[in-house]
From TrEMBL:
This is histidine kinase. Keywords: Kinase, Membrane, Phosphoprotein, Transferase, Transmembrane, Transmembrane helix. GO terms for molecular function: protein histidine kinase activity. It comes from SAR86 cluster bacterium. It catalyses: ATP + protein L-histidine = ADP + protein N-phospho-L-histidine. Gene3D superfamilies: 6.10.340.10. The keyword Transmembrane helix applies. GO terms for biological process: phosphorelay signal transduction system.
Amino acid sequence: MGIGSRLFLIIFLSLGLGIFVSYIIAERDITDTFQKHIINELQNQASLLVEVVDEVNSIGGLNEADSLADRLGSASNSRVTLILSDGNVIGDSDVDTQNINDLDNHANRPEVQDAFLKGRGWSIRYSDTVKQQQMYYAILDNNNVSPNVIRIAVPYVNVNSAIRSLNLSIILIALVAFIVTSIASGIAANYAYRSIADLAYATSKIADADGKAKKKDLKALPTERTDEFGNVAQSVSQMSEELKSKINLIAKQRDQFGSVLDDLGEGIIVADIDGK
């Protein structure tokens, strides 16, 4: 694998990993935010239902309570359940009146327990009554002596559908980012490779010149650049100039020494100050 391919792979994997991590975080945060938004909407609707119902135990008989639950459920486009303080259900918009008494006591439902303890509560769970996953929100009515519970619920499949739509948008964004990353990685890798290749070519020409680098070879070095490649090119150019100077000096000294050796044939006389 060449250096260009390695550079592309490193940049591509780094950016790809960044996009993947960003997708995971974005998907989690958007899901949590959307879920909180749904809970807030259920809370607002439940608060309105409390104002309409006032006190669950003050409603007439079972038929009247279930009829009220049906009307409220139709108006809010959700499932509305009216639960007495002992956990018995007297109205449910998704259950026929004749089947209300067959429903289990709801005092042990998580959202109902939280409502009795904290005034309100919510949960996401499977409903044995309607046979589907639902998001529940329960709130106490206006009875301060023996409070009852008004519960509202929506199918969680609707929430999942909305979240899947958001996830699809995130995936499309990630896909576009992935394509852009691939192109950017190729451009960045090619730029780095070309810079290294140009520097390698110029230095090899200088090396092949055997210390007699031509001016055009030195000019091929990207010394005008201000990045790391420019620093290396300037260092190579400086080394080349210094090497050229030293070679010229050695050649000069060699010529001088050769002239001395050539004159040895004519003889050398060594005398003191008196000529002896």
